[in-house]
């Protein structure tokens, strides 16, 4: 077991949690949110300020990450944990066990609330990746808001509080303060700070913050309970190197792509397949699949099939892996069809799909030359920095949170090599859009975190 010697920013985090019963910890990925929170909980349990805490987290994080941290540090020796995952019977059994701290995956938030008839027996709820509760319409938010008000302490952890802008904040902050700062209802929040961004026939599809003054007011409203810290300000880690590897489609392919973009119909004469996109959203999705090299379609039996189109991206990926000269490479895919293409093209490397704890352990031991992951499954809490320092985005996601969190699996404390992050992008196609959108969203989030950051000076 290791002796825990907290960094100054971790001391700030621990003190903030202990001083604020309901608080938000907006720390950059890799800054030790988990061990800092566990340390604060351990101190609070010692003085009986809390008796029974539960952590709601992404599934893989709930299963292993928190417990691994408990087992890692000497000062947490003796803290017992019960992990409530699996079948309903297994979850119920785990919740009835005697333990110091409980863990459950966020997909079972509704089940948890209903199991206790909306009266949680936990006096402290820790929401790991608070931003996964950002949608006020989500089932998990609607159920948790009913029963969390009675909890003495609520701690929200995330490195990405506003992946799509300020409208994401209301639901997250509501879980911390029951609407005290940003409004008791979503309508009130919108009326105060937002305006329609996309609207048609009096129906608002998306919202945006009204002004710079509104942004400033939101940050000031939540700054007493939320703190923000960036890794670059406190850790001596090299910034990742971002490399855009552009791919060009041959003229006939690009012509076919442009015709599909214009006409919404794509014919594959050799196979007799005709693909039609009936909405702009469906068209965009199919264009992105086209750029990656294969598109989905439904056959006469309404079964999903895959039409292979090209290997341009695959060839670019092979080049990067060859350039790595045997160093492990993590590949983030976007569509299921990407997996089969990558497995076939790279079979000499025996690529592995990240699915289990065994995959994580073997990756970190350097035993997996090429590992495939999807940002939805590896985007939060997993420590992959010991296994490699090269990440290739076979398809860049639309969401800032998915993008940043996946990058942070390698770019975190303990990484011994400069991290290389490649983006495979097909020129002249919709494939160029996601990265541009992510950069725009990142600027908005950075502005909020910067405004909240100065709260830290009170602790230093």
Give the % helix. Answer: 40-55%
- Could you say what the CATH topology of the largest domain is called? Rossmann fold
CATH class of the largest domain: Alpha Beta
Reported CATH architecture of the largest domain: 3-Layer(aba) Sandwich
Coarse morphology = globular
CATH superfamily of the largest domain: Tandem AAA-ATPase domain
Cα Rg: 23 Å
**What is the count of structural domains?**
3
Q: What would your notes on this structure say?
A:
It is a single chain. The chain is of the alpha/beta class. It has 3 domains: 8-232 and 451-458, 3-Layer(aba) Sandwich (Rossmann fold); 241-247 and 311-428, Rossmann fold (3-Layer(aba) Sandwich), CATH 3.40.50.300; 251-308, no CATH class. The protein has 18 helices and 19 strands. The protein has helices at 8-19, 33-46, 59-72, 88-96, 109-115, 139-147, 169-177, 186-193, 212-222, 231-234, 251-263, 280-292, 312-323, 336-345, 357-364, 375-378, 400-407, 433-453, and strands at residues 22-27, 53-57, 81-84, 101-105, 124-128, 153-158, 194-200, 203-209, 226-229, 241-247, 265-268, 273-276, 294-298, 304-308, 329-332, 352-353, 370-373, 390-393, 420-426. A 7-stranded parallel sheet has the order 3-4-2-5-6-1-9, with helices on both faces. The longest helix is centred in the last third of the chain and has 21 residues, at 433-453. The mean pLDDT is 89.
């Amino acid at each position: 077991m290791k002796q825990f010697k907290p960094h100054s920013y971790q001391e700030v985090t621990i003190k903030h949690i202990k001083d604020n019963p309901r608080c938000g910890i907006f720390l950059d990925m890799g800054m030790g949110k988990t061990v800092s929170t566990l340390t604060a909980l351990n101190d609070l349990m010692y003085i009986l300020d809390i008796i029974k805490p539960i952590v709601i987290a992404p599934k893989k994080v709930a299963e292993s990450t928190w417990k691994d941290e408990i087992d890692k540090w000497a000062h947490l020796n003796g803290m017992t944990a019960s992990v409530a995952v699996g079948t309903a019977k297994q979850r119920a059994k785990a919740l009835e066990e005697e333990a110091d701290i409980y863990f459950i995956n966020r997909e079972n938030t509704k089940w948890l609330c209903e199991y206790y008839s909306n009266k949680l027996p936990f006096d402290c709820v820790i929401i790991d990746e608070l931003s996964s509760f950002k949608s006020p319409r989500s089932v998990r938010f609607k159920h948790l808001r009913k029963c969390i008000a009675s909890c003495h302490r609520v701690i929200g952890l995330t490195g990405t509080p506003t992946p799509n802008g300020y409208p994401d904040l209301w639901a997250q902050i509501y879980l911390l303060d029951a609407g005290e700062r940003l409004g008791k209802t979503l309508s009130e929040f919108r009326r105060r700070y937002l305006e329609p961004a996309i609207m048609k026939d009096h129906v608002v599809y998306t919202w945006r913050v009204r002004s710079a003054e509104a942004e400033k007011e939101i940050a000031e409203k939540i700054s007493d309970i939320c703190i923000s810290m960036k890794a670059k300000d406190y850790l001596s880690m090299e910034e990742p190197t971002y490399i855009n590897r552009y791919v060009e489609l041959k003229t006939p392919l690009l012509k076919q792509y442009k015709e599909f973009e214009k006409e919404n119909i794509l014919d594959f004469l050799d196979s007799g397949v005709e693909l039609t996109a009936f909405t702009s959203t469906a068209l965009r999705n199919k264009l992105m699949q086209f750029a990656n090299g294969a598109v989905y379609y439904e056959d006469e039996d309404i079964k999903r099939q895959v039409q292979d189109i090209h290997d341009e991206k695959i060839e670019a990926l092979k080049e990067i892996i060859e350039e790595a000269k045997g160093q492990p490479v993590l590949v983030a895919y976007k569509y299921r069809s990407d997996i089969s293409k990558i497995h076939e093209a790279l079979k000499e490397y025996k690529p592995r799909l990240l699915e289990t704890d065994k995959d994580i352990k073997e990756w970190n031991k350097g035993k997996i030359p090429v590992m495939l992951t999807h940002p939805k499954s590896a985007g939060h809490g997993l420590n992959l920095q010991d296994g490699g320092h090269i990440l290739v985005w076979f398809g860049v996601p639309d969401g800032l949170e998915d993008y940043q969190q996946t990058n942070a699996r390698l770019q975190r404390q303990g990484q011994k090599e400069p991290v290389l992050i490649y983006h495979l992008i097909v020129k002249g196609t919709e494939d160029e859009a996601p990265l541009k959108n992510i950069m725009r969203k990142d600027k908005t989030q950075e502005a909020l975190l910067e405004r909240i950051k100065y709260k830290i000076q009170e602790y230093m």
